[in-house]
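Why do we care about 3D structure at all? Because function follows from shape, and shape follows, mostly, from sequence. That is the central idea of this module. The next example makes it concrete: a single protein chain, its amino acid sequence, and then its structure expressed as tokens.
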Amino acid sequence: MIAPFILFIFLGGIWLKAFTIVISIFGLYEFYNALKEKKFNPISIGGYALLIIFYLRGNNFEEAMYILILSTILLLIIPVVNLKYNFIDVSLTLLGFLYVAILFSFIPIVNNKVGGQYLVWLIFLGSWIADTTAYYCGKYLGKRKLCPEISPKKTIAGSVGGFLGSTIGCGIYGIIIGINVPEVQTIHFFLIGGLCGIMGQLGDLVASSVKRYVGIKDYSNLIPGHGGILDRFDSILFNAVVVFYYLTFIVGI
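And the structure:
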């Protein structure tokens, strides 16, 4: 799953968006399936329909809001006409859409920015480098646990290593490709890397807290050796938002 995704990042445009839709559907399926372990009953078909409509029609913020508001109203009506569902089910259906579909959508949005074919890699480099450096720092230096109740294997040393790795890695990437995106000064790559090093780890912990609550180890076994889509992309979901907001409101592109 990771190798094809790298290919689609290179292709960009409609190809990246199409692949993002596919993994969003799988991710939403995993999220709803996890909730069923706790006997919740999300309105899955409504969530999938909302996801597809959002990706096909939500081309700007205004349209996206119209879709979300109308869909919320329609979903709220369902427990009234079908007693199989309740308003908690509606809330969790919308939560899944927001957590999976909306956050994944920031990947093609960043790709569509000026120089997006270079900047979109920050989302993934910030996650992958942080994961790698956190693992090795935690393995060789980690003694004190970070959040043992949520993720017993994570250590403070690993967390610091992930932050530093992401900061330095994204900064070096910025130095290498900076000539292709003159709108973004080199310092911003380091800052984005630092933010990704923090938010990506929080995304990881959020996914772990959900799994711990519902009592599962992995969201699925779709990716051999890595679990499911949400297991592999948990930090990427948060970092996609970080990169978009930073480029939009700090850099101004």
